Amino acid sequence: MFAVAWPYKYFTVFCLGGLVGSNFVCGQVLPRHEDNIYESRPPYGDDFDNEFDVDLILFSVLFMVSCYFLLTIIYFCIKYLVRRYLTTGISLNGQGTTRILGPAVNARWPSALDDENVVRDKLAKMSPEEQFYYKQGEEFIRQNPPLVIPEAIGTDAEDPIINEQTLQFIEEEGAHAWEFQPNANLPNDTILVENRTEITFLNYNYDASVMANLPIPRINRIYYCEFKIFELNTAGSGNNQLSDSELISFGLCTSPYPYFRLPGRHHHSIAYDSSGGRRFNDSFEQAPELASLFPRCEKGDVIGIGYRSNSGTVFFTRNGKKLKEKSVGGHIKGWKLKYLYPIVGANLPCKVHVNFGTHGFVYIEANVKKWGYAKLNGIKLPPPSYEDYDQDVLVESNYEDDLSDNESVSTSEVGNVVDREGHLLPPPPGFEFSTSPSSVVGDEYTLNSLPAEPPSYISDDHESIEIQNSAPGAGDSREDGKSSHDDNDEAKKNAFVNQFL
């Protein structure tokens, strides 16, 4: 009402002002009649002093609702046209559909691998074997581009990875939802995974890596996991130290990642090498500061990787202590990619155990603040309830008298047992046992029909005594004139003997 009356009021004043102004401009002044005295009157007459104009209120409401829907339709039409024709988004092809996740941006994290001149110079310093594997890794990424979606993109579209089904699976399984799955292209004896997170590398003198099945959910502020070097099979027997050519790398990456390369060597990956170096999108020879940034690893060490979702910061720990990176500019920050997967790789036989929160962390702060990937134990749904369990059939009759079954039986084999319709005939007179006992056909045993107590059995001695006592003419056939007391004694002896027969 106010929204309609306010413009109407000022519009009237504006029109009256215009009329007065036009008279002055034209040099005409309206005559003034003092005799005409203005008398104020109610706007709606005497009969409508305390009543509202219902028609005007309804018209105002309908007008505002119509304008709202009209503006909403115009907004969505403009948004669709802009996203359809004026921007090129990152498309994800899945099951024949294309989802536009946002405007085009430079999704690739800048690194030395993007500069062809720098790559050419550094590639010349590598051995032919290293050059071959580097080119193979880059070709793998070109043919299998990783799913790289910056955090600011794709907030309105459906999440293809962390969707409702994935979140429900994580809620049910807890931290056990994460497991490592070796690539199918690797030989069967390269990587073995036991109990989901116990990884055994059997390769020697060539690189291999395995990544988790699920990325970091990016729901909480911080996520943390730990890798323990459980066993080492180094060249020197009984030596827990690794040489410069023997490497175990722990890190994060996007998916897919070259399974024949260690993490940190290609785009969108970071790693802590067992030699003490930090790799970040770099396959070439490192500077001395980066090559010796962290302590060297040995058997029994626990390497932790933490990721802060809000700032995109990655930090590392070793044996429960957070490692400093001030000498190279601090931790990696701003690495805000939507899907980051834990990954571990090695080029020597070893065994690594990974902890996503199923056990206590060595890093105390992660335990106190619960930085695990999920809860320790998930909330699994209970099994379906059986309300009518006492009605379930336990033992059912094995006699089948369906027409389909009777058709498979020839009449020559049955003889006169069944009639033309396939029903069993009654037994002939004098036949002691029926071919289809009425007490068995159609019987179904349930929990309610079973006897409450098992049947009681009489001992053999009492049974034999009763049989002999109830035998006809037991006392008439005696020829030696023994007394009944002797007969009872003899019967007891026979019963005693029968127990051992």
TrEMBL record:
Residues 157-361 form the B30.2/SPRY domain. Keywords: Endosome, Glycoprotein, Membrane, Protein transport, Signal-anchor, Transmembrane, Transmembrane helix, Transport, Vacuole. It is a single-pass type II membrane protein. One of its GO terms (biological process) is protein transport. One of its GO terms (cellular component) is endosome membrane. It comes from the Eukaryota. CDD domains: SPRY_SSH4_like. InterPro entries: B30.2/SPRY (IPR001870), B30.2/SPRY_sf (IPR043136), ConA-like_dom_sf (IPR013320), SPRY_dom (IPR003877), SPRY_Ssh4-like (IPR035780), Ubq-SigPath_Reg (IPR050618). The keyword Membrane applies. The keyword Thylakoid does not apply. The chain crosses the membrane at residues 56-78. SUPFAM superfamilies: Concanavalin A-like lectins/glucanases. Its main location: membrane. Residues 419-501 are annotated as: Disordered. Residues 476-493 have a biased composition (Basic and acidic residues). It is found in: Endosome membrane; Vacuole membrane. Belongs to the SSH4 family. Components of the endosome-vacuole trafficking pathway that regulates nutrient transport. May be involved in processes which determine whether plasma membrane proteins are degraded or routed to the plasma membrane. This is LAMI_0E02652g1_1. It comes from Lachancea mirantina.
